[in-house]
């Protein structure tokens, strides 16, 4: 099963800003390393030279330069041509793009109070900057003039698609509104930007503040000695000497719940996790949620849509709320039925142990592991020695990519990094030419956003002559010094997943930056990454990387078979927690301004009930008050996208299997027809060209055990 992971796409404004068009460094930026393109290979950021204080002046100058460039385009006396308008916009904003991608990525992966403050200051300014471009009437008039005669311009397919895309971007940004309504929209966009930043920062701070503190080693029985030592060290670092601190991850479920033997501690851990953002303290997100939901609903109304979800979905492959509601609604009942059956299995174990209690959310993972151990005769922890990080990355993730696409990797230590744990690899194409630079930032840190994601520092574009610099970010707990990093099965899947996004970025072979790599609809972007998860358990790949970290012995065949057999186990839980979050995300964004409730938790409870996913032992994967996908911007009204993408993913996995699996010819076809094409064509056309037909849903239902059998 694929785990929802966050993907950060670089260009936050939608306009693609170029990276390499060199403007003379302004005097204001003397000595600022962001002023010009980095001279390191592929314009890799000079992390050793970039200081926090460089960002604000570079942002200011970057916005100033781009507005000047846009002004020249909009006021050109010559009639609009594709080159003097659309291509010129593609080339504009080089400095701003550089600042924005570098800052955005560092703030997500390695933040501090200064960067958080810059983020808060810049969010509304960047929203206003985007509006100054998209709501410029002279500029829109030129785009529209070209759009209206697009069939007679003799453009190649990618260029024509770019023109259409620009027109859509302008219209959706409000270019057709009256002058008065444009001012209203600008004000709303500023409010939304500020609130989203507040929400994101509250989530991280509340997650850190909510870490569970226990008094004794015994209470953490079930965790390994190394994990308990790490908890002691974490407590000490927070001034709680002698105690133990269990850090939280951003999902409702917490990894230690699977192993903690003490039921009271499990219950406390679950409770602090579920209460995040609604504790009434400094980082309470309830009012922030209400304000975001209201502002987005008002924006949608202003733009002529029934609600924000309708506005958001129109630009996705799903297209409308009806299609999304139908998919989620149809799956909810069978998923919850499966979860109830699983709960009965767990209860049977509790009863056999004479536990004398009813399964609650905090017990689920622990008893699931017990049932899994009984049914498949293995314990998840038996796998970990075979999933050592270097083996997984080099002999697993990279190996699969070499087999499929012929690409190879070479680690380099000469480029600067923002944290000593970050690793850098040159990526070479089958012909030996360098294709990209890959950055692997695998370990959890308290100043790093939760979850896992991919982002790009530099996007590929033949127009700009750039190749990709992409990064993967995971949150694998760092072991004490001298201990190996052993991954869980889920973490292994996540490593393959994020690398699927990285491939989408690195294989990009497009002209325009607007279409580079992962610049595709949000409900399509998770598709290539989910497909890449299949190689994690592909026998030939597994045999190459799943080796005992001490002895080098291969993972025993029967353990391997059990891993594969157990893949369908716990699907009821996983589908239900995901659907509950997806449905919440839709509910919050299918409201008109007048329908915004006053009580966040009551609305959440009622929504789960209405949709039949109010099964307490399986809480939503994210509750409203820490649901960053939904309220920080990236996946608002779009969390369903993982499942939507999974339909394409499951169908594609079938294709690979039909064609013999891990073979160059299969990889090359997928790369040529899909991974290299970015957003240059309608997403479903790309799929059709790859698969030879439209997608079917049966493989997804089969995979998730939702066929009703
Ligand atoms: Zn993803």
Gist?
Helix content is 52%, strand content 6%.
Descriptive key words:
single chain, 709 residues, mainly alpha, two-stranded antiparallel sheet, globular, disordered N terminus, binds zinc ion
Choose one word for the global shape.
globular
Largest sheet: 5 strands, mixed
Q: What's the total count of β strands?
A: 7
Termini distance?
A: 19 Å
The set of bound ligands, ions and cofactors reads: zinc ion
Query: What is the number of helical segments per DSSP (H or I, 4+ residues)?
Result: 26
Strand order of the largest sheet: 3-4-5-7-6
Radius of gyration: 25 Å
Mean pLDDT: 92
> In terms of per-residue confidence, which ranges show pLDDT below 50 for 5 or more consecutive residues?
1-23
Relative strand content: 5-15%
Structural class: mainly alpha
Q: What's the helical proportion of residues?
A: 40-55%
Descriptive notes:
The structure is a single chain. The protein is mainly alpha-helical and 709 residues long. It has helices at 55-74, 82-91, 94-109, 113-134, 137-148, 157-173, 179-209, 225-237, 263-274, 286-302, 308-313, 321-352, 364-376, 380-383, 389-405, 489-506, 522-532, 539-545, 557-565, 571-589, 600-610, 628-631, 641-658, 664-675, 683-691, 698-703; strands spanning 212-214, 244-246, 408-412, 423-428, 434-443, 453-458, 468-476. The strands form two sheets. A five-stranded mixed β-sheet has the order 3-4-5-7-6, sandwiched between helices. A two-stranded antiparallel ribbon has the order 1-2. A hairpin with a 5-residue loop joins strand 4 and strand 5. Helix 4 (113-134) packs antiparallel against helix 7 (179-209), helix 16 packs across helix 17 and helix 17 (522-532) packs across helix 23 (641-658). The longest helix has 32 residues, at 321-352. The radius of gyration is 25 Å and the shape is globular. Bound molecules: zinc ion. Residues 5, 7, 497, 501, 526, 529 line the site of zinc ion.
């Amino acid at each position: 099963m694929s785990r929802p992971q966050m993907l950060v796409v670089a260009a936050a404004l939608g306009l693609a800003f170029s990276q390499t068009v060199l403007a003379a460094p302004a005097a204001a930026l003397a000595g600022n390393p962001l002023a010009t393109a980095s001279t390191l290979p592929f314009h890799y950021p000079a992390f050793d030279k970039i200081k926090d204080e460089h960002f604000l002046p570079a942002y200011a100058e970057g916005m100033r330069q781009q507005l000047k460039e846009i002004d020249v385009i909009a006021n050109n006396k010559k009639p609009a041509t594709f080159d003097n308008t659309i291509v010129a916009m593609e080339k504009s904003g080089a400095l701003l793009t550089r600042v924005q991608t570098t800052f955005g990525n560092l703030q997500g992966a390695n933040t501090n109070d200064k960067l958080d403050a810059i983020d808060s200051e810049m969010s509304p300014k960047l929203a206003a900057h985007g509006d100054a471009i998209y709501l410029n009437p002279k500029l829109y008039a030129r785009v529209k003039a070209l759009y209206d005669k697009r069939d007679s311009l003799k453009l190649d397919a990618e260029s024509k698609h770019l023109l259409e895309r620009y027109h859509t971007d302008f219209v959706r940004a409000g270019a057709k509104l009256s002058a008065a309504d444009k001012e209203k929209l600008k004000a709303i966009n500023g409010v939304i930007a500020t609130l989203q930043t507040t929400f994101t920062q509250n989530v991280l701070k509340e997650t850190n503040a909510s870490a569970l503190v226990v008094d004794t080693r015994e209470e953490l029985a079930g965790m390994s000695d190394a994990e308990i030592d790490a908890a002691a060290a974490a407590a000490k670092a927070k001034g709680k000497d002698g105690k133990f601190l269990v850090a939280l991850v951003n999902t409702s479920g917490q990894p230690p719940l699977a192993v903690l033997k003490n039921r009271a501690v499990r219950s406390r851990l679950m409770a602090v996790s579920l209460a995040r953002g609604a504790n009434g303290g400094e980082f309470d997100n309830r009012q922030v949620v209400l304000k975001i939901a209201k502002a987005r609903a008002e924006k949608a109304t202003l733009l002529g849509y029934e609600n924000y979800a309708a506005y958001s979905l129109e630009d996705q492959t799903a297209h409308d709320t009806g299609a999304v509601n139908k998919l989620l609604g149809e799956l909810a009942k069978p998923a919850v039925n499966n979860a109830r059956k699983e709960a009965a299995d767990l209860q049977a174990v509790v009863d056999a142990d004479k536990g004398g209690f009813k399964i609650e959310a905090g017990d689920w993972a622990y008893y699931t592991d017990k049932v899994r151990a009984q049914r498949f005769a293995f314990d998840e922890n038996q796998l970990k020695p075979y999933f050592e990080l270097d083996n997984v990355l080099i002999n697993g993730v990279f190996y699969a990519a070499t087999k499929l696409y012929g690409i190879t990797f070479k680690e380099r230590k000469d480029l600067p990094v923002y944290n000593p744990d970050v690793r850098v690899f040159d990526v070479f194409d089958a012909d030996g030419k360098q294709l990209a630079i890959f950055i692997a930032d695998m370990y959890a840190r308290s100043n790093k956003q939760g979850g896992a994601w991919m982002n790009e520092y530099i996007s590929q574009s033949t127009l700009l002559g750039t190749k990709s610099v992409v990064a993967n970010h995971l949150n694998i707990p760092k072991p004490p010094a001298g201990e190996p990093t052993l991954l869980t099965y889920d973490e292994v899947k996540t490593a393959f997943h994020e690398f699927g996004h990285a491939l989408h970025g690195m294989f990009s072979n497009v002209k325009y930056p607007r279409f580079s790599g992962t610049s595709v609809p949000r409900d399509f972007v998770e598709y290539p990454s989910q497909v890449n998860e299949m190689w994690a358990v592909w026998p030939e790949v597994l045999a190459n990387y799943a080796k005992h970290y001490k002895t080098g012995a291969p993972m025993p065949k029967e353990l391997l078979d059990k891993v594969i057999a157990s893949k369908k186990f716990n699907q009821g839980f996983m589908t239900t927690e995901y659907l509950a979050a997806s449905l919440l995300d839709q509910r919050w964004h299918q409201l008109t301004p007048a329908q915004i409730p006053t009580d966040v938790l009551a609305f959440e409870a009622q929504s789960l009930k209405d949709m039949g996913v109010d099964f307490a032992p399986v809480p939503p994967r994210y509750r409203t008050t820490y649901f960053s996908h939904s309220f920080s911007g990236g996946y608002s009204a779009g969390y369903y996208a993982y499942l939507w993408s999974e339909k394409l993913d499951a169908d594609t996995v079938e294709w690979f299997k039909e064609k013999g699996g891990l073979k160059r010819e299969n990889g090359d076809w997928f790369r040529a027809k899909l991974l290299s094409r970015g957003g240059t064509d309608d997403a479903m056309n790309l799929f059709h060209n790859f698969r030879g037909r439209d997608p079917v849903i049966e493989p997804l239902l089969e995979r998730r055990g939702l066929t009703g059998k």
